[in-house]
Design goal:
heterodimer; A: about 325 residues; 2 helices; B: about 200 residues; 5-stranded antiparallel sheet; about 40% helix; globular
Chain lengths: ~325, ~200
């Protein structure tokens, strides 16, 4: 775990950054500001639970680059969404009932990038934990899923990270509080997460990740490899994570997770098709879960996107009810 | 029905937002460092590539259009050495037979191509050719007018002079040429005024 003194030093450094921004940034806040209204409607047909649910979301997605006259200081991302569930089960942790609604903060962070060559960028706020495929392929607000949250206990968390792109490598290491949507440690929760990988814009990407944390009373340890290879309009990628979970009832249990995805895009990038095979095994379960997902997203124009996905469980679980989930999403960014 | 009408209205009123969520934006940090190894920082200037800019591109380069992902808010980077500007970096996408190609252009203060590299190419064969100095030499050092003179009469493919030089990669030559022209044109249209003040 990161030493408290180092944590405090980093916070102090970021406060200096914020102070310098307020003093030296252009008076016009709208300069270098991107913002979009982002609305989506998602329909979920869950065969195993014999349930149909809907999720409505309308939010503001913002990105702002802060600059000195002589260069960038850093950037901030802020995303807040009003989200309404309708008959959605199981109830996500952010909500209290299947028809609940709330304002949800997705990403909200500042990344200081103006340090000297040797100094990492410093990010503070609520961000996606740097682990596995999700580090280079963002799935926020999409049907595409790399099971990031299920694997680590949370997809996003409050804290700080050190990150940088250097020559042929990029890295991102974070210390977060384990409170998920709460900007505090809950009953001693914490998470240390990190990934180092080759440059994520290349045709072949390889990464190594590690995680050690306690979230929701479960201690998790993970190491993972992820890789991506693209040739023309085809992509094949995968992630393999192994580790163990410890909760008070069951003690330490081995965990394995792997995903392989084959995807294809059209040459104009409007249509993307993908299929995934997911394998999840836990010592606490009688048999491993094997899932097959297929889906597509069609970008009608720069604003409007239609996506659909279907997932089915290949093995028969102890309950006898195989997971079968079909989802449709319409998303509009204005 | 109400929902459908609202949806239709939204589509008709659509502006040029970026299709992707902003948390997934990444600056081309390693490419800027490759194009300007001596740079100490970069200065971002974000501008909206809107329908007006798109129309200007269509007028200046008939038979050409911008890919939909090229609309919305985009960044021009100024490579800085301390307080001194070294040149500009502008990333643009162009559709090719093997998918979208993203090129990171280094542009000098006279708005001439000074170098370029790829953010996405996804064709090992074309990538190898594109990195050769013979291929790069076709574009490097040229301004918009000089590059436009390399277009054939159809306005979208390179002329015989270029194609003779790149006999094994004509589509690559066409894609890079179209991308270079649109990049220099948009740099001048949208960022020109601010760059002149530097």
């Amino acid at each position: 775990m990161m030493k408290p003194l180092l944590f405090k030093s980093c916070i102090g450094y970021l406060l200096l950054f914020l102070a310098s921004m307020s003093m030296t940034c252009d008076a016009n806040f709208s300069q270098n500001l991107r913002w979009s209204l982002d609305g989506s409607f998602r329909l979920n047909l869950n065969e195993a639970l014999d349930n149909t649910s809907r999720i409505y979301a309308l939010g503001l997605d913002t990105h702002k680059v802060f600059t000195y006259p002589s260069g960038d200081i850093g950037y901030g991302v802020g995303q807040v969404y009003y989200t309404k569930l309708s008959n959605h089960i199981p109830v996500p942790f952010l909500f209290t009932s299947k028809d609940d609604s709330d304002f949800i903060i997705r990403e909200a962070h500042l990344n200081y990038t103006a340090g000297p060559h040797w100094l990492p960028n410093i990010r503070i706020g609520h961000f996606t934990l740097p682990f596995g495929l999700e580090e280079s392929i963002d799935t926020n607000g999409r049907l595409l899923d790399y099971y990031h949250g299920k694997n680590l206990g949370s997809k996003l968390d409050w804290g700080l990270s050190l990150n940088k792109v250097i020559n042929h490598l990029e890295y991102n290491v974070s210390y977060t509080l384990g409170g998920k949507d709460k900007a505090k440690s809950v009953d001693g929760s914490y998470a240390v997460t990190g990934r180092v990988g080759s440059l994520s814009h290349l045709d072949f990407v390889f990464g190594l990740s590690a995680f050690n944390g306690e979230i929701d009373g479960v201690t998790r340890k993970r190491i993972a490899v992820d890789w991506q290879y693209y040739y023309a309009t085809w992509g094949i990628l995968g992630e393999l994570a192994i580790g163990e979970n410890n909760n008070q009832l069951q003690g330490w249990q081995e965990e394995k997770y792997s995903l392989v995805e084959l995807n294809k895009t059209t040459i104009n990038n409007q249509l993307k098709l993908y299929s995934q095979f997911v394998f999840r095994d836990s010592e606490s379960n009688e048999s491993a879960d094997k899932l097959l997902n297929i889906g597509f997203s069609y970008q009608v124009n720069n604003q409007f996107e239609l996506s659909m996905s279907g997932g089915m469980q290949l093995n028969t679980p102890a309950s006898g009810k195989k997971k079968q989930l079909a989802r449709v999403q319409l998303r509009y960014r204005y | 029905m109400k929902i459908l009408s609202m949806l239709l209205m939204l589509i008709l009123l659509s502006s040029n937002a970026n299709a992707i969520a902003y948390c997934s934006l990444r600056d081309p940090v390693s490419q800027i460092a490759k194009l300007y190894p001596q740079k100490t920082n970069q200065l971002s200037i974000v501008k909206a590539v809107d329908d007006n800019a798109r129309a200007q591109v269509q007028t200046a380069l008939p038979s050409n259009d911008l890919h939909f992902s090229e609309l919305g808010q985009h960044t021009l980077y100024i490579a800085m050495l301390g307080k001194q500007s070294l040149g500009y970096v502008h990333v643009r996408s162009e559709q090719s037979d093997w998918g979208l190609v993203e090129i990171v252009w280094a542009i000098d203060k006279d708005l001439r191509i000074s170098n370029f590299t790829f953010q996405r190419c996804r064709s090992p064969k074309n990538m190898k050719i594109a990195q050769s100095s013979d291929f790069k030499g076709i574009y490097i050092g040229k301004n918009y007018q000089e590059l436009k003179a390399l277009l054939s009469n159809d306005g979208v493919t390179a002329n015989k002079y270029v194609l003779d030089k790149v006999q094994n990669a004509p589509e690559l030559a066409n894609v890079v040429l179209r991308c270079a022209l649109k990049t220099l044109l948009l740099t001048e249209i949208l960022w020109g005024e601010e760059l002149n003040k530097l």
